[in-house]
Amino acid sequence: MKGQTLKENKDFRRLYYRGKNRAGSLLVTYAMKNKKGFNAYGITTGKKIGGAVERNRARRIIRVSFSNLEKEIEGSWDFVFVARTKSTVVKEQELEAQMRKQFVELGVINEKA
After folding, report:
1. Rounded CA gap, 38 and 17, in Å?
2. Single pTM value for the model
3. Mapping DSSP to helix (H, G, I), strand (E, B) and coil, where does residue 22 land?
């Protein structure tokens, strides 16, 4: 099932303050279990990242990376992804690899032995 998007400020704030997080050079991921029965995510791209074109590109590759990894997620979770400046210039595969590593560290997906 395709993840729903978080749009409310209160949802973002809840994850910032109560969710677990992992930071990388491309992406900061906040995660928290939910009882909704589906995954929900939100993406934050600040003005520091660049103009509208760069911010939209960052959002697009984060969205694609998440959808590629979503089938491996166990249970239902809420996520907030905060794009970093470097995320506008890397390939989607690099961002997806970092997202996978963060998911494993957060216990969202099991690492294949």
Report:
1. 21
2. 0.94
3. strand
